[in-house]
Design a protein that fits this description.
Blueprint lengths: L2 H9 L5 E3 L8 E7 L10 H13 L9 E5 L3 H13 L2 E7 L4 H9 L3 E5 L14 H11 L4 E2 L7 H18 L6 E5 L4 H13 L4 E7 L18 H4 L7 E5 L1 H15 L5 H15 L4 E7 L7 H6 L5 H8 L3
Parallel strand pairs: 2-10, 3-4, 3-6, 4-5, 7-8, 7-10, 8-9
Antiparallel strand pairs: 1-2
Helix pairs in contact: 2-3, 2-6, 6-7, 9-10
Bound molecules: pyridoxal-5'-phosphate.
Pyridoxal-5'-phosphate binds next to strand 7 and helix 7.
């Protein structure tokens, strides 16, 4: 493995687990895993490093002539772009046009070439519906020599990154007391990787998946009726005990609460995790609940402005703490 990839790997672990006071009672302890403390500011640093390390080991990527191409709604692209810059290969990202302008600007500033498609927010999966994935696949087929597509939707290194890092961190940091795990679904890597690890440690741990409603604005998450389930997720979907479907309104409402009560600038998907945690609390579940906060609100100023989630001066104030 190139030395600089090892250096990145060293930093992609041990994100903090913090107590969310707004939704904690003596018998319900909600812990948020702040994944934006990873390099490149999101949970996707983990699968990105695992997938590239695997591709280097298998000789699929060599040097400057290698072009990585990947369909993504943003965070995987940003992590791959950061790695590409550090390790030295080219990157092309196939991205739905509706992702936030800040995400696209950031990707371009990191040197990635963007190919936009009219997928909604998350690359769709399934014959006849996907734009981003089909375009990336056709480019790889056309010029197979230099192109490599990690394909987070089907690559077991994505699952393994969470099975080998996120899951063990949660088990260690809760001293084995975790009873419920909540995460969103994009590729299903987080839910299945962490879910498998925690259930191996304690089969009584319950795993909850969070999906947004149809026509949503929660970047990074997928509604499973709008798009087929990714192959990676299908391999282990039985690990999810139950699903929550969360509206934009509920998720954005919690983004505002988290800003005002916890002084945290969270991303839309973290708002969805909070809404799911609240439903869990209200129906009487108790224990030590761990929820994934996949990214911060840094990239969503325009989204939060459009949906009246945060005032500009609130946003500026919180940005300093991210
Ligand atoms: C911002 C964000 N993106 C993606 C995901 C999940 O990604 P995946 O299912 O691809 O592991 C999460 C998980 O909660 C998330 O918060």
């Amino acid at each position: 493995m190139p030395r600089n990839l090892e250096d990145i790997l060293d930093q992609v672990v041990n994100t903090p687990l913090v107590k969310v006071r707004s939704l904690t009672s003596p018998d319900y302890s909600l812990l948020a895993k702040l994944e934006w403390k990873n390099p490149f500011d999101s949970i996707k640093a983990r699968p990105a490093v695992w997938m590239i390390r695997d591709a280097v080991a298998k000789g699929m990527i060599s040097g400057k002539d290698s072009i990585i191409i990947e369909p993504t709604s943003g965070n995987t692209g940003i992590a791959l772009a950061g790695i590409a810059k550090t390790v030295g290969f080219q990157l092309e990202i196939v991205i739905p046009q509706n992702v936030s302008q800040e995400t696209k600007d950031l990707l371009r500033s990191l040197g990635a070439k963007l190919l936009e498609t009219d997928d909604d927010l998350c690359p769709r999966v399934g014959v006849g519906t996907d734009q981003s994935i089909a375009l990336a696949e056709s480019m790889v087929k056309g010029q197979s020599q230099n192109y490599y597509m990690p394909n987070q939707y089907d690559n077991d290194s994505n699952f393994l990154s969470h099975y080998e890092s996120t899951g063990p961190e949660i088990w260690r940091d809760t001293k084995g007391e975790v009873t419920h795990f909540i995460a969103g679904v994009g590729t299903g890597g987080t839910l299945t990787g962490v879910g498998k690890y925690l259930k191996e440690k304690n089969p009584r741990v319950k795993v909850f998946g969070v999906q947004p409603e149809k026509n949503h604005h929660l970047q990074g998450l997928r509604n499973l009726d709008e798009s087929s389930k990714p192959a990676l997720f299908l391999r282990r979907e039985e690990l999810v005990d139950e699903w929550f479907t969360i509206s934009d309104k509920a998720a954005f409402g919690w983004v505002t609460i988290m800003a005002e009560k916890e002084h945290l600038l969270v991303g839309p998907s973290s708002g969805a995790m909070m809404a799911a945690s609240q439903e869990l609390y209200e129906r009487g579940e108790r224990g030590t609940i761990v929820a994934i906060f996949g990214d911060s609100g840094r990239k969503y100023r325009s989204v939060y402005r459009k949906f009246n989630v945060l005032l500009d001066n609130q946003f500026e104030d919180l940005l300093r703490g991210v």
